[in-house]
Amino acid sequence: MAGTKVLRSLLHELRLASQSPGKIRDSLAARYILAQYKKYETTDQQLCKARDEAIFLGQTYLTYLSSLRKYNELYKEYHGSGERTVKETADLVGFKLPTDPK
């Protein structure tokens, strides 16, 4: 992934993880990430090993944030909220209950 794509993906995940409806630029995490990307910005004529390390670190943060978001979604969906009926359990796992014609 290119550096710009990682940065945009990171800011998107931060926006999804944010609890406050305000701008993402106001958050401390977003400001830190932007500062790090500006710090390791290079031109075509420079070779910077720290930039590659910064991109790798950005990808690691991106993986962590997206995995955390997916975990929370799954937890909310499947976490038990007490007893479930047989029909709810069957719907949860994708089964259909047989019907009794009367």
UniProtKB/TrEMBL annotation:
InterPro entries, per database record: FMC1_homologue
Recorded family membership: Belongs to the FMC1 family.
PANTHER family: PROTEIN FMC1 HOMOLOG (PTHR31716:SF1)
Protein name stated in the entry: Protein FMC1 homolog
Species name: Drosophila arizonae
